[in-house]
Amino acid sequence: MDDVTQxxxxxxxxxxxxxxxxxxxxxxxxxxxxxxxxxxxRADHTLQVTGLVNxxxxxxxxxxxxxxxxxxxxxxAGTLMRRVLVDHARRQQASKRPPADARVSLDDVDPAAxxxxxxxxxxxxxxxxxxxxxxxxxxxxxxxxxxxLDIETTARTMELSVSTVTREWRMAxxxxxxxLDA
Length: 182
Known about the structure:
Elements: H1 3-12, H2 17-39, H3 49-61, H4 70-96, H5 111-133, H6 135-146, H7 151-158, H8 162-181
Protein name: RNA polymerase sigma factor (TIGR02999 family)
Keywords: Sigma factor, Transcription, Transcription regulation
GO molecular function, one term: sigma factor activity
């Protein structure tokens, strides 16, 4: 058992200072995850890598999940980062809405910013719908798209064959594309 796994177990068992010792061991990996997730966002995104790491870490700190090991912890962190980005996009969209009684000119609207936020929210909704139909395909999409794992690592993580992950990834992408195009 490595240090991270031991600290995760101690934290789950209620040892609060285990969390303080855990962060330095996983911080670089959390930053790399956040960087990959923000790479797909628009250039003027208001959330930066450090902010995304901090927000995800705060959400992780509020949980006492039964993490199996470092890899499991990072997978959950990647999923939480996705949630942070979606929540951020929803807040941004809500703040751009004018009051109900206000008139707004179409010239005042930045369609590119609205589209990117809307795309992330739409993808999140489509991924939630996919998870209700096929949980495994949705998990593969999360690992590949949001966590940034390659096919082989995704297969090892999910304890599936490479050909199964390749097939499921292809099917999930096609389903999501149809859903997003509709």
